[in-house]
Amino acid sequence: MIKRKKSVAYCLLFCLLTGGMAFYELRYSLLQEESKVEERVANTSILLGEWIKGAFVASDYILRDIVYRVPVSALQFPATNADEYARISKLIEDKYKTLPHAIGVGLNDKNCIMTHTPSIIGFDARQREWCRVPMHNPDIQTYVSNMFASNIGELMVIQTRKFPGDEFSGLAGIGVDLEFFSTWLEKVMIGTHGVLAITDQNVNLLARKPAKPEMLGKNVNDPIVKAFITSSENYKTFRKISPLDKEPRLYGIRKIEGLPFVVVVGEADRDWQAAWMLHVWLTIGALVILWVLAFYTLHIYWERLSNLVELKKVRDELEDLSLTDALTGLANRRCFNNVLDVECHRMRRLKAPISLIMIDVDFFKAFNDTYGHLAGDECLKLVAGVLQSKLKRPQDLAARYGGEEFCCILPETEHAGAVRIAMSMKDGIADLGIQHEGSAIENHLTVSIGVATVICDEDMNSDIIVNLADERLYQAKKNGRNQVASED
Prior knowledge:
Blueprint: H1 2-69, H2 82-97, E1 102-109, E2 114-116, H3 129-135, E3 142-144, E4 148-149, E5 155-162, E6 170-177, H4 179-186, E7 195-200, E8 205-209, H5 223-230, E9 235-241, E10 248-255, E11 261-268, H6 269-272, H7 274-323, H8 333-350, E12 353-361, H9 364-371, H10 373-390, E13 397-402, E14 405-411, H11 415-431, E15 447-455, H12 462-478, E16 484-485
Helix pairs in contact: 1-7, 9-10, 10-11
Protein backbone atom coordinates (compact mmCIF):
# COMPACT_ATOMS: atom_id res chain seq x y z
CA MET A 1 0.00 0.00 0.00
CA ILE A 2 2.84 2.40 0.88
CA LYS A 3 4.57 1.67 -2.41
CA ARG A 4 1.33 2.32 -4.27
CA LYS A 5 0.85 5.66 -2.52
CA LYS A 6 4.43 6.63 -3.28
CA SER A 7 4.08 5.63 -6.93
CA VAL A 8 0.88 7.69 -7.25
CA ALA A 9 2.61 10.65 -5.61
CA TYR A 10 5.57 10.35 -7.99
CA CYS A 11 3.24 10.03 -10.99
CA LEU A 12 1.25 13.09 -9.96
CA LEU A 13 4.47 15.00 -9.30
CA PHE A 14 5.69 14.06 -12.78
CA CYS A 15 2.41 15.25 -14.30
CA LEU A 16 2.57 18.51 -12.36
CA LEU A 17 6.19 19.12 -13.37
CA THR A 18 5.59 18.37 -17.05
CA GLY A 19 2.38 20.42 -16.98
CA GLY A 20 4.20 23.32 -15.34
CA MET A 21 7.03 23.14 -17.85
CA ALA A 22 4.54 23.03 -20.73
CA PHE A 23 2.66 26.02 -19.30
CA TYR A 24 5.89 27.97 -18.90
CA GLU A 25 6.97 27.11 -22.45
CA LEU A 26 3.59 28.15 -23.87
CA ARG A 27 3.61 31.36 -21.87
CA TYR A 28 7.15 32.12 -23.01
CA SER A 29 6.32 31.37 -26.66
CA LEU A 30 3.22 33.60 -26.41
CA LEU A 31 5.33 36.48 -25.09
CA GLN A 32 7.86 35.88 -27.85
CA GLU A 33 5.12 35.88 -30.48
CA GLU A 34 3.60 39.01 -29.02
CA SER A 35 7.00 40.68 -29.07
CA LYS A 36 7.31 39.83 -32.77
CA VAL A 37 3.86 41.32 -33.42
CA GLU A 38 4.75 44.50 -31.56
CA GLU A 39 7.90 44.80 -33.68
CA ARG A 40 5.96 44.11 -36.87
CA VAL A 41 3.29 46.68 -36.01
CA ALA A 42 5.97 49.26 -35.22
CA ASN A 43 7.80 48.59 -38.48
CA THR A 44 4.57 48.80 -40.50
CA SER A 45 3.71 52.16 -38.95
CA ILE A 46 7.21 53.44 -39.72
CA LEU A 47 6.93 52.23 -43.32
CA LEU A 48 3.57 53.92 -43.87
CA GLY A 49 4.74 57.08 -42.20
CA GLU A 50 7.86 57.28 -44.37
CA TRP A 51 5.89 56.64 -47.56
CA ILE A 52 3.41 59.41 -46.79
CA LYS A 53 6.11 61.80 -45.66
CA GLY A 54 8.09 61.08 -48.83
CA ALA A 55 5.03 61.79 -50.98
CA PHE A 56 4.54 65.20 -49.35
CA VAL A 57 8.24 65.97 -49.73
CA ALA A 58 7.90 65.22 -53.46
CA SER A 59 4.85 67.47 -53.82
CA ASP A 60 6.65 70.21 -51.92
CA TYR A 61 9.28 70.23 -54.68
CA ILE A 62 6.52 71.06 -57.15
CA LEU A 63 5.29 73.86 -54.89
CA ARG A 64 8.86 75.18 -54.63
CA ASP A 65 9.10 75.21 -58.43
CA ILE A 66 5.84 77.14 -58.67
CA VAL A 67 6.62 79.82 -56.05
CA TYR A 68 10.00 80.51 -57.67
CA ARG A 69 8.62 80.64 -61.21
CA VAL A 70 5.53 82.71 -60.57
CA PRO A 71 6.13 86.38 -59.77
CA VAL A 72 4.30 87.74 -56.71
CA SER A 73 3.04 90.60 -58.87
CA ALA A 74 0.90 88.08 -60.77
CA LEU A 75 -1.08 87.23 -57.62
CA GLN A 76 -3.94 89.60 -58.31
CA PHE A 77 -7.69 89.32 -58.31
CA PRO A 78 -9.10 90.19 -60.65
CA ALA A 79 -6.23 89.55 -63.06
CA THR A 80 -4.87 92.63 -64.93
CA ASN A 81 -2.85 90.71 -67.52
CA ALA A 82 -4.84 88.03 -69.31
CA ASP A 83 -1.84 86.52 -71.09
CA GLU A 84 0.18 86.21 -67.91
CA TYR A 85 -2.83 84.76 -66.11
CA ALA A 86 -3.26 82.18 -68.83
CA ARG A 87 0.45 81.27 -68.74
CA ILE A 88 0.45 80.83 -64.97
CA SER A 89 -2.80 78.87 -65.03
CA LYS A 90 -1.31 76.51 -67.60
CA LEU A 91 1.85 76.17 -65.52
CA ILE A 92 0.03 75.16 -62.38
CA GLU A 93 -2.29 72.87 -64.35
CA ASP A 94 0.72 71.07 -65.85
CA LYS A 95 2.21 70.68 -62.38
CA TYR A 96 -1.09 69.43 -61.04
CA LYS A 97 -1.22 66.68 -63.66
CA THR A 98 2.10 65.27 -62.43
CA LEU A 99 0.59 64.51 -59.01
CA PRO A 100 -1.61 61.46 -58.64
CA HIS A 101 -4.64 62.09 -56.42
CA ALA A 102 -4.11 65.87 -56.55
CA ILE A 103 -7.42 67.70 -56.84
CA GLY A 104 -5.79 70.88 -58.09
CA VAL A 105 -3.11 73.51 -57.59
CA GLY A 106 -4.06 77.02 -56.57
CA LEU A 107 -2.43 80.37 -55.71
CA ASN A 108 -3.39 82.89 -53.04
CA ASP A 109 -2.29 86.49 -52.61
CA LYS A 110 -1.12 88.13 -49.41
CA ASN A 111 -4.71 88.41 -48.19
CA CYS A 112 -5.38 84.70 -48.87
CA ILE A 113 -7.63 85.56 -51.82
CA MET A 114 -7.65 82.84 -54.47
CA THR A 115 -6.08 84.24 -57.65
CA HIS A 116 -5.47 81.06 -59.66
CA THR A 117 -7.47 77.90 -59.01
CA PRO A 118 -9.59 75.26 -60.73
CA SER A 119 -12.20 76.02 -58.07
CA ILE A 120 -13.55 79.46 -57.18
CA ILE A 121 -11.49 82.51 -58.19
CA GLY A 122 -11.66 85.29 -55.61
CA PHE A 123 -12.51 82.99 -52.67
CA ASP A 124 -11.36 84.45 -49.34
CA ALA A 125 -9.45 81.65 -47.58
CA ARG A 126 -8.32 83.59 -44.53
CA GLN A 127 -10.42 81.36 -42.26
CA ARG A 128 -9.06 78.16 -43.78
CA GLU A 129 -6.44 76.42 -41.67
CA TRP A 130 -4.14 75.82 -44.62
CA CYS A 131 -3.90 79.58 -45.27
CA ARG A 132 -4.47 81.06 -41.82
CA VAL A 133 -1.68 79.14 -40.06
CA PRO A 134 1.18 80.02 -42.44
CA MET A 135 -0.15 83.56 -42.88
CA HIS A 136 0.20 84.31 -39.16
CA ASN A 137 3.35 82.26 -38.44
CA PRO A 138 6.47 83.76 -40.10
CA ASP A 139 8.57 80.71 -39.24
CA ILE A 140 6.35 78.33 -41.20
CA GLN A 141 7.35 78.09 -44.87
CA THR A 142 5.42 74.98 -45.78
CA TYR A 143 2.32 73.57 -44.16
CA VAL A 144 -0.01 70.57 -44.49
CA SER A 145 -3.53 70.99 -43.18
CA ASN A 146 -5.87 68.64 -41.37
CA MET A 147 -8.77 67.25 -43.40
CA PHE A 148 -11.59 69.61 -44.35
CA ALA A 149 -14.49 69.77 -46.82
CA SER A 150 -13.99 72.12 -49.80
CA ASN A 151 -16.54 74.57 -51.17
CA ILE A 152 -17.80 71.86 -53.50
CA GLY A 153 -18.01 69.25 -50.73
CA GLU A 154 -14.84 67.30 -51.48
CA LEU A 155 -12.86 65.88 -48.52
CA MET A 156 -9.22 66.77 -48.81
CA VAL A 157 -6.07 68.08 -47.21
CA ILE A 158 -4.03 70.94 -48.63
CA GLN A 159 -0.28 71.35 -48.69
CA THR A 160 0.92 74.95 -49.04
CA ARG A 161 4.21 76.80 -49.47
CA LYS A 162 4.79 80.52 -49.03
CA PHE A 163 6.20 82.67 -51.78
CA PRO A 164 9.74 83.76 -50.90
CA GLY A 165 10.22 87.01 -49.05
CA ASP A 166 10.42 88.46 -45.58
CA GLU A 167 6.77 89.37 -45.53
CA PHE A 168 3.83 87.10 -46.28
CA SER A 169 3.12 87.77 -49.95
CA GLY A 170 1.00 84.77 -50.85
CA LEU A 171 1.22 81.01 -51.15
CA ALA A 172 0.79 78.09 -53.52
CA GLY A 173 -1.24 75.08 -52.49
CA ILE A 174 -1.99 71.53 -53.66
CA GLY A 175 -5.24 69.81 -52.75
CA VAL A 176 -4.99 66.08 -52.10
CA ASP A 177 -8.07 63.83 -51.90
CA LEU A 178 -8.48 61.00 -49.37
CA GLU A 179 -7.84 58.35 -52.02
CA PHE A 180 -4.21 59.41 -51.75
CA PHE A 181 -4.03 57.91 -48.23
CA SER A 182 -5.95 54.75 -49.13
CA THR A 183 -3.42 54.06 -51.89
CA TRP A 184 -0.62 53.70 -49.36
CA LEU A 185 -2.66 51.40 -47.15
CA GLU A 186 -3.36 49.07 -50.06
CA LYS A 187 0.38 48.53 -50.46
CA VAL A 188 0.65 46.99 -46.98
CA MET A 189 -0.22 43.37 -46.22
CA ILE A 190 -2.12 42.88 -42.98
CA GLY A 191 -3.76 39.83 -41.39
CA THR A 192 -7.28 38.76 -42.38
CA HIS A 193 -8.78 40.50 -39.37
CA GLY A 194 -6.17 43.26 -39.02
CA VAL A 195 -6.78 46.94 -39.57
CA LEU A 196 -4.83 49.94 -40.91
CA ALA A 197 -6.00 53.53 -40.53
CA ILE A 198 -4.81 57.11 -40.97
CA THR A 199 -6.32 60.04 -39.10
CA ASP A 200 -5.48 63.71 -38.90
CA GLN A 201 -4.77 65.52 -35.66
CA ASN A 202 -8.47 66.21 -35.22
CA VAL A 203 -8.98 62.42 -35.19
CA ASN A 204 -10.87 62.52 -38.49
CA LEU A 205 -10.57 59.27 -40.42
CA LEU A 206 -8.68 59.75 -43.71
CA ALA A 207 -8.29 56.13 -44.78
CA ARG A 208 -8.95 52.63 -43.51
CA LYS A 209 -8.16 49.06 -44.51
CA PRO A 210 -10.44 47.16 -44.73
CA ALA A 211 -12.35 50.02 -46.28
CA LYS A 212 -15.39 51.58 -44.61
CA PRO A 213 -16.32 54.42 -47.02
CA GLU A 214 -19.19 55.57 -44.82
CA MET A 215 -16.72 56.41 -42.04
CA LEU A 216 -14.25 58.49 -44.08
CA GLY A 217 -14.07 62.07 -42.93
CA LYS A 218 -15.89 61.31 -39.69
CA ASN A 219 -14.43 61.83 -36.28
CA VAL A 220 -13.11 58.72 -34.60
CA ASN A 221 -14.22 58.94 -31.01
CA ASP A 222 -11.30 57.04 -29.53
CA PRO A 223 -9.95 58.44 -26.24
CA ILE A 224 -6.67 56.53 -26.56
CA VAL A 225 -5.89 58.07 -29.97
CA LYS A 226 -7.03 61.51 -28.81
CA ALA A 227 -4.83 61.36 -25.71
CA PHE A 228 -1.89 60.16 -27.80
CA ILE A 229 -2.23 63.05 -30.28
CA THR A 230 -2.12 65.63 -27.49
CA SER A 231 0.78 63.89 -25.74
CA SER A 232 4.50 64.26 -26.39
CA GLU A 233 4.77 60.62 -27.46
CA ASN A 234 5.62 59.77 -31.05
CA TYR A 235 4.69 56.09 -30.86
CA LYS A 236 2.50 53.97 -28.60
CA THR A 237 1.28 50.36 -28.43
CA PHE A 238 -1.85 49.16 -26.68
CA ARG A 239 -4.36 46.34 -26.67
CA LYS A 240 -8.04 46.98 -27.23
CA ILE A 241 -11.29 45.43 -28.42
CA SER A 242 -12.43 47.45 -31.42
CA PRO A 243 -15.80 49.15 -30.83
CA LEU A 244 -16.56 48.75 -34.55
CA ASP A 245 -16.20 44.99 -35.04
CA LYS A 246 -15.56 43.78 -31.46
CA GLU A 247 -12.23 42.33 -32.58
CA PRO A 248 -9.43 42.24 -29.97
CA ARG A 249 -6.22 43.60 -31.47
CA LEU A 250 -2.74 44.74 -30.64
CA TYR A 251 -2.37 48.31 -31.92
CA GLY A 252 0.53 50.58 -32.72
CA ILE A 253 -0.07 54.30 -33.37
CA ARG A 254 2.58 56.65 -34.72
CA LYS A 255 2.71 60.34 -35.49
CA ILE A 256 4.15 61.18 -38.91
CA GLU A 257 6.96 63.63 -38.30
CA GLY A 258 6.24 67.10 -39.68
CA LEU A 259 2.70 66.20 -40.80
CA PRO A 260 -0.65 66.35 -38.97
CA PHE A 261 -1.33 62.66 -39.47
CA VAL A 262 -1.39 59.57 -37.29
CA VAL A 263 -0.92 56.02 -38.58
CA VAL A 264 -2.79 53.25 -36.76
CA VAL A 265 -1.80 49.60 -37.28
CA GLY A 266 -3.74 46.82 -35.56
CA GLU A 267 -3.13 43.08 -35.78
CA ALA A 268 -6.02 40.86 -34.64
CA ASP A 269 -5.25 38.42 -31.84
CA ARG A 270 -6.77 35.51 -33.74
CA ASP A 271 -4.49 36.22 -36.71
CA TRP A 272 -1.17 36.47 -34.94
CA GLN A 273 -2.11 33.83 -32.35
CA ALA A 274 -3.20 31.26 -34.96
CA ALA A 275 0.23 29.64 -35.26
CA TRP A 276 0.69 29.84 -31.49
CA MET A 277 -2.70 28.16 -30.91
CA LEU A 278 -1.61 25.31 -33.18
CA HIS A 279 1.50 25.05 -31.02
CA VAL A 280 -0.75 25.05 -27.93
CA TRP A 281 -2.85 22.15 -29.22
CA LEU A 282 0.22 20.18 -30.25
CA THR A 283 1.74 20.76 -26.81
CA ILE A 284 -1.48 19.77 -25.05
CA GLY A 285 -1.72 16.68 -27.23
CA ALA A 286 1.88 15.71 -26.45
CA LEU A 287 1.27 16.42 -22.76
CA VAL A 288 -1.87 14.26 -22.69
CA ILE A 289 -0.01 11.43 -24.42
CA LEU A 290 2.81 11.81 -21.90
CA TRP A 291 0.36 11.73 -18.99
CA VAL A 292 -1.46 8.71 -20.43
CA LEU A 293 1.87 6.93 -20.78
CA ALA A 294 2.74 7.90 -17.21
CA PHE A 295 -0.49 6.47 -15.83
CA TYR A 296 -0.18 3.42 -18.07
CA THR A 297 3.33 2.91 -16.71
CA LEU A 298 1.90 3.32 -13.20
CA HIS A 299 -0.74 0.71 -14.03
CA ILE A 300 1.91 -1.70 -15.31
CA TYR A 301 3.99 -1.00 -12.20
CA TRP A 302 1.00 -1.78 -9.98
CA GLU A 303 0.37 -5.01 -11.85
CA ARG A 304 4.00 -6.02 -11.46
CA LEU A 305 3.93 -4.93 -7.83
CA SER A 306 0.82 -7.05 -7.28
CA ASN A 307 2.56 -9.94 -9.01
CA LEU A 308 5.61 -9.45 -6.80
CA VAL A 309 3.41 -9.36 -3.71
CA GLU A 310 1.69 -12.55 -4.82
CA LEU A 311 5.04 -14.09 -5.65
CA LYS A 312 6.40 -13.11 -2.24
CA LYS A 313 3.31 -14.53 -0.61
CA VAL A 314 3.79 -17.79 -2.49
CA ARG A 315 7.48 -17.82 -1.62
CA ASP A 316 6.66 -17.15 2.03
CA GLU A 317 4.13 -19.95 1.96
CA LEU A 318 6.67 -22.24 0.34
CA GLU A 319 9.25 -21.20 2.91
CA ASP A 320 6.75 -21.83 5.70
CA LEU A 321 6.04 -25.21 4.19
CA SER A 322 9.75 -25.94 4.02
CA LEU A 323 10.16 -25.07 7.72
CA THR A 324 6.80 -26.22 9.09
CA ASP A 325 5.42 -29.68 9.66
CA ALA A 326 2.31 -29.96 7.52
CA LEU A 327 0.44 -32.21 9.97
CA THR A 328 1.03 -30.61 13.37
CA GLY A 329 1.89 -27.02 12.43
CA LEU A 330 5.06 -27.22 14.52
CA ALA A 331 8.52 -26.55 13.13
CA ASN A 332 9.89 -29.45 11.09
CA ARG A 333 13.26 -31.09 11.52
CA ARG A 334 14.97 -28.77 9.06
CA CYS A 335 13.79 -25.73 10.99
CA PHE A 336 14.72 -27.46 14.27
CA ASN A 337 18.30 -28.04 13.12
CA ASN A 338 18.70 -24.46 11.89
CA VAL A 339 17.35 -22.92 15.10
CA LEU A 340 19.41 -25.24 17.31
CA ASP A 341 22.63 -24.30 15.47
CA VAL A 342 21.85 -20.59 15.83
CA GLU A 343 20.91 -20.87 19.52
CA CYS A 344 23.99 -22.94 20.35
CA HIS A 345 26.14 -20.27 18.71
CA ARG A 346 24.32 -17.57 20.67
CA MET A 347 24.59 -19.44 23.96
CA ARG A 348 28.29 -19.98 23.29
CA ARG A 349 28.75 -16.20 23.08
CA LEU A 350 26.65 -15.68 26.21
CA LYS A 351 28.17 -18.68 28.00
CA ALA A 352 24.61 -19.57 28.98
CA PRO A 353 22.87 -22.96 29.32
CA ILE A 354 20.59 -24.45 26.68
CA SER A 355 18.16 -27.30 27.32
CA LEU A 356 16.64 -29.79 24.94
CA ILE A 357 13.54 -31.90 25.56
CA MET A 358 13.01 -34.95 23.36
CA ILE A 359 9.55 -36.59 23.44
CA ASP A 360 8.41 -39.93 22.01
CA VAL A 361 4.80 -41.19 21.98
CA ASP A 362 4.71 -44.61 23.69
CA PHE A 363 3.64 -47.55 21.55
CA PHE A 364 2.51 -45.29 18.71
CA LYS A 365 2.87 -48.01 16.06
CA ALA A 366 0.41 -50.13 18.04
CA PHE A 367 -1.92 -47.11 18.23
CA ASN A 368 -1.89 -46.79 14.44
CA ASP A 369 -2.41 -50.50 13.99
CA THR A 370 -5.35 -50.44 16.40
CA TYR A 371 -7.13 -47.21 15.52
CA GLY A 372 -5.84 -46.41 12.05
CA HIS A 373 -3.59 -43.73 10.60
CA LEU A 374 -6.23 -41.00 10.61
CA ALA A 375 -6.69 -41.42 14.33
CA GLY A 376 -2.91 -41.49 14.64
CA ASP A 377 -2.66 -38.14 12.84
CA GLU A 378 -5.27 -36.61 15.16
CA CYS A 379 -3.36 -37.99 18.12
CA LEU A 380 -0.12 -36.35 16.97
CA LYS A 381 -1.93 -33.00 16.49
CA LEU A 382 -3.25 -33.14 20.05
CA VAL A 383 0.19 -34.01 21.41
CA ALA A 384 1.70 -31.10 19.43
CA GLY A 385 -0.90 -28.73 20.88
CA VAL A 386 0.02 -29.72 24.45
CA LEU A 387 3.74 -29.27 23.77
CA GLN A 388 3.23 -25.84 22.22
CA SER A 389 1.00 -24.73 25.11
CA LYS A 390 3.68 -25.48 27.67
CA LEU A 391 6.26 -23.19 26.00
CA LYS A 392 5.64 -19.62 27.22
CA ARG A 393 8.60 -17.71 25.75
CA PRO A 394 8.90 -16.65 22.10
CA GLN A 395 12.46 -17.99 21.89
CA ASP A 396 11.36 -21.52 22.83
CA LEU A 397 10.68 -23.84 19.92
CA ALA A 398 8.62 -27.01 19.62
CA ALA A 399 9.32 -29.18 16.57
CA ARG A 400 8.26 -32.50 15.13
CA TYR A 401 11.52 -34.39 14.92
CA GLY A 402 10.15 -37.30 12.93
CA GLY A 403 7.30 -39.80 13.10
CA GLU A 404 6.01 -39.77 16.68
CA GLU A 405 9.10 -37.97 18.04
CA PHE A 406 9.10 -34.30 19.09
CA CYS A 407 11.85 -31.95 20.33
CA CYS A 408 11.74 -28.68 22.24
CA ILE A 409 14.57 -26.12 22.34
CA LEU A 410 14.79 -23.97 25.49
CA PRO A 411 17.62 -21.38 25.25
CA GLU A 412 18.96 -19.86 28.50
CA THR A 413 17.10 -22.45 30.57
CA GLU A 414 18.60 -24.27 33.59
CA HIS A 415 18.23 -28.01 33.83
CA ALA A 416 15.74 -27.93 36.69
CA GLY A 417 13.47 -25.56 34.79
CA ALA A 418 13.61 -27.77 31.71
CA VAL A 419 12.70 -30.82 33.80
CA ARG A 420 9.66 -29.01 35.24
CA ILE A 421 8.47 -28.14 31.74
CA ALA A 422 9.03 -31.74 30.61
CA MET A 423 7.01 -33.07 33.53
CA SER A 424 4.24 -30.61 32.73
CA MET A 425 4.23 -31.83 29.12
CA LYS A 426 4.03 -35.49 30.20
CA ASP A 427 1.15 -34.81 32.57
CA GLY A 428 -0.67 -32.63 30.01
CA ILE A 429 -0.54 -35.39 27.40
CA ALA A 430 -1.75 -37.93 29.94
CA ASP A 431 -4.62 -35.61 30.83
CA LEU A 432 -5.78 -35.76 27.20
CA GLY A 433 -7.15 -39.19 28.06
CA ILE A 434 -6.65 -40.53 24.57
CA GLN A 435 -7.71 -44.20 24.68
CA HIS A 436 -4.90 -46.60 23.86
CA GLU A 437 -5.65 -50.18 24.75
CA GLY A 438 -2.39 -51.26 23.18
CA SER A 439 -0.41 -49.38 25.85
CA ALA A 440 1.31 -51.72 28.26
CA ILE A 441 1.31 -49.05 30.97
CA GLU A 442 -2.10 -47.37 30.99
CA ASN A 443 -5.27 -47.59 28.98
CA HIS A 444 -4.55 -44.12 27.60
CA LEU A 445 -1.80 -42.47 25.54
CA THR A 446 1.51 -41.65 27.30
CA VAL A 447 4.90 -40.29 26.32
CA SER A 448 8.54 -40.86 27.28
CA ILE A 449 10.77 -37.79 27.62
CA GLY A 450 14.48 -37.18 27.77
CA VAL A 451 15.90 -33.87 29.06
CA ALA A 452 19.46 -32.62 28.43
CA THR A 453 21.08 -29.34 29.48
CA VAL A 454 24.57 -28.12 28.55
CA ILE A 455 26.66 -24.98 28.96
CA CYS A 456 27.88 -24.10 25.49
CA ASP A 457 31.63 -23.64 25.08
CA GLU A 458 34.07 -23.76 22.22
CA ASP A 459 33.86 -27.54 22.02
CA MET A 460 30.08 -27.63 22.21
CA ASN A 461 27.89 -28.20 19.15
CA SER A 462 24.29 -29.08 18.44
CA ASP A 463 24.97 -32.77 17.86
CA ILE A 464 26.21 -33.19 21.42
CA ILE A 465 23.04 -31.99 23.09
CA VAL A 466 20.81 -33.90 20.62
CA ASN A 467 22.69 -37.13 21.33
CA LEU A 468 22.51 -36.50 25.06
CA ALA A 469 18.75 -35.88 24.98
CA ASP A 470 18.28 -38.91 22.76
CA GLU A 471 20.23 -41.08 25.25
CA ARG A 472 18.00 -39.91 28.09
CA LEU A 473 14.90 -40.56 26.03
CA TYR A 474 16.18 -44.07 25.43
CA GLN A 475 16.77 -44.37 29.17
CA ALA A 476 13.14 -43.35 29.86
CA LYS A 477 11.88 -46.00 27.48
CA LYS A 478 14.23 -48.58 28.93
CA ASN A 479 13.01 -47.81 32.43
CA GLY A 480 9.40 -48.53 31.47
CA ARG A 481 8.14 -45.45 29.49
CA ASN A 482 5.63 -42.79 30.69
CA GLN A 483 8.40 -40.92 32.52
CA VAL A 484 10.99 -38.16 32.28
CA ALA A 485 14.66 -39.12 32.26
CA SER A 486 16.96 -36.22 33.06
CA GLU A 487 20.02 -37.77 34.71
CA ASP A 488 22.55 -40.32 33.50
